[in-house]
Amino acid sequence: MDYLKRYLDLVERGMSDELSAQSRVVSPHLYSIVKQYIGAGGKRLRPCLLLACCEAVGGDAESALPAAIAVEMYHNWTLIHDDVIDHDDFRRGRATGHRLGALLGTKDLGLEGDIADDYGQSAAILAGDVLQARATEKLFELQGFPDAVVLSLVREMTGSLTVDLLNGEQLDVEMSHLAFEKIDEPKISGMMLGKTSALLRYCASAGAALGCGEPLEGCDIARDLGEFAALCGLAFQLKDDLLGIFGDEQRIGKPVGSDIREGKRTLLAYKALASCDAKERERFLQIYGLRDAGEADLELARQLLSRGVEATQETMESCVSLALGILEKLEIPSDSARSKLVAFAESMVARDL
Amino acid sequence: MDYLKRYLDLVERGMSDELSAQSRVVSPHLYSIVKQYIGAGGKRLRPCLLLACCEAVGGDAESALPAAIAVEMYHNWTLIHDDVIDHDDFRRGRATGHRLGALLGTKDLGLEGDIADDYGQSAAILAGDVLQARATEKLFELQGFPDAVVLSLVREMTGSLTVDLLNGEQLDVEMSHLAFEKIDEPKISGMMLGKTSALLRYCASAGAALGCGEPLEGCDIARDLGEFAALCGLAFQLKDDLLGIFGDEQRIGKPVGSDIREGKRTLLAYKALASCDAKERERFLQIYGLRDAGEADLELARQLLSRGVEATQETMESCVSLALGILEKLEIPSDSARSKLVAFAESMVARDL
User: Fold this and answer.
1) Most exposed of A2, A239, B38, B69 (fewest Cβ within 10 Å)?
2) Contact present, B345 and B52 (Cβ < 8 Å)
3) CB distance A163–B133 less than 8 Å?
4) pLDDT tier, B353 (very low <50, low <70, confident <90, very high otherwise)
5) Which of B139, B170, B216 to mutate to test binding with chain A, by most A CBs within 10 Å of its CB?
6) For residue B302, with 0-12 CB atoms within 10 Å meaning exposed, 13-18 middle and 19 or more buried, which class applies?
7) CA dist., res. A255 & res. A93, Å (int)
8) What would the pLDDT profile of A305-314 be if each residue is shown by its tens digit?
9) pLDDT tens for residues B61-116?
10) Rounded-to-integer distance, Cα B190 and Cα B262, Å
């Protein structure tokens, strides 16, 4: 995403400063896990969105950098715990937190087997906890803004954002144990709004509030850009679900079968199931959520899931259209800033990782 | 602890308000876990210390109540994740978070066996995460204090406090895998200063800062009362280690063998080992840290551990003396407030749960 290049450079610089600060205070194994996530690149979508929204309302991206670093740390905290919950061993082509923890336990403490795994899981839980706290603390490095602005960002992060996001994750876990008959589209959207949209909304709103120098609460354009980003988030998650099944394992850096094995209640699966006949339905439900599904099972599930692709793509495109509709009505002084946000929304669908 | 009765009543009222607020926004299973911890009583030591320190410097306890509730929530967040890490099934005589989560998964989602356990663990991780965030958010309910005071409490909570505490927990886990030869008293103290003292220090300092209406950084009495509380914390942890081995299972509400099975590197174990002969030492090391140690094993370990009791008690009493020495030099306007803090320090040793 070339149009984000300048933001990306800023973010990489800010993140590297943050990592050296952490290396001085965070216990070595916890630090290694934190570094594995926030040092490993990733798309840096959230901090770039924050900086883009700050500039879109006439603010200075550089001054908002600590908040951009904060949201990226926040995002990675949720990933570390998510990977524990989903038992995923790889992310972005590298060992996840609990896997890395287990390896460190073996290397430095001579642990083996279950004991090493258990140690890895403890370390990943604690590393996520550290990162959650430091994400919030990072906001205090914002300079030159009124206290009320900083306070409003901290309060929203530790308040609605976290409750919404974690409720969404909990719903994701719960729903994977619910029969498909008990699930409907509003439930799936509700889950995505929490799990994915909540943080993108926060990024856009926080960036705008900083750009305007106003607290979140009374800032209309922060609210509207938040809506824009929440809709982009829905499209992002739908695309993620598609890539999780049909994407290139090498490019995404994690096994593409894991959503099938976890039985994730995605819109894709819901729509695919709706177009299955009774026999296909039965077969699909046998495989979907089977922890030890083999390659042949996965392939059949993938074939059946392909029936849901068109409907998912349509929904995804409606979300982007709605987002762009919101953007059109907003007063954004610079054309270049506006076109960055348009490109951002469109990239939700166009991306291949 | 009768002298804390008035504070305790305040805290119970504040906590019940907080629980009703959470019941409206937090997902039901996560809320059940949160409620199991913060609704279940416990000693409420930390919020009472905060309120006592607020009054000791001439402040109004009632106005500091949101901070008292915040530290109790914070403490319980760490307990939920701790219980996952230590695989403890009971706390305060009730199911721990992951156990309760598993039971809810069975009741509401029909889950069984490993799947239920796994669900319970996910829910406990997420519930702890919610509580960590809301503990910080709770500080924003402080009314009538300058923004700079509230900001300083939030910043310290999400900064040094959390890093120190989690580093201490990590050290606790790491050390349980280290041979006793690689451990010394400073290492054990360092672990206790993080795992236990850091939060007590925060409680005392935050209470004093609120009582003075000053930010934490420049407030001398907040720093000194923090030192007092950190020393009390060491005594508290040493007593906890004693109760964990020799206490009344019914009263403490958790199995007394768990520290032995986890192989906790306590001062008690360290001192006991120092007075064992070679044969006893060998036997002790076979049992200590054995996950499936039987009753006879536990009894033998307990016998050997009793050799460390005297030295542990001496250290505990020195910590209390040092704490009282700090208190003596402080200017505390009210005698009744001072005597409450003296009673607090003495109760670290005298308690039986």
Assistant:
1) A2
2) no
3) yes
4) low
5) B170
6) middle
7) 9
8) 999 999 999 9
9) 999 999 999 999 999 999 999 999 989 899 888 999 999 999 999 999 999 999 99
10) 19
Pull the structure tokens for residue A20. 């050296």
Res A317 pLDDT > 70: yes
Q: Do B109 and A174 touch (CB under 8 A)?
A: yes
Q: Beta partners for B90? A: B95
Which candidate from B109, B136, B167 shows the least CB-CB separation from A177?
B109
How confident is the model over B211-254, as pLDDT tens digits? 999 999 999 999 999 999 999 999 999 999 999 899 887 776 66
pLDDT at A351 over 80: no
Nearest to A267 by CA among A303, A301, A309: A309
Nearest Cα of chain B lies from the Cα of A338 at a distance, in angstroms, of 34
Per-residue CA distances from B271 to B134, B159, B231, B281, B332 (Å): 40, 34, 20, 12, 37
What is d(CA A56, CA A207) in angstroms, rounded to the nearest whole number? 9
Q: Which residues contact A34 (CB under 8 A, 6 or more apart)?
A: A19, A22, A26, A76, A127, A130, A131
Encode burial over A258-297: b for 16+ CB neighbours within 10 A, e otherwise. Answer: bbbbbbbbbbbbbbbbeebeeebbeebeebbbbeebeeeb
Joined together, the tokens standing for residue A268 give: 């894709």
Placement of tokens 């306590």 in the chain: B266
Token couple for B291: 């996950």
- Tokens for A184, please give them: 């409907």
Domains annotated for chain A, with CATH where assigned, are: 2-347 (1.10.600.10)
One-letter amino acid of B206: A
Look up the pTM and report it: 0.95
Q: How far apart are CA A200 and CA A294, in angstroms?
A: 35
Residue among A130, A104, A131 at smallest CA distance from A117 = A104
Cβ-based contacts of A115 with chain B (< 8 Å):
177
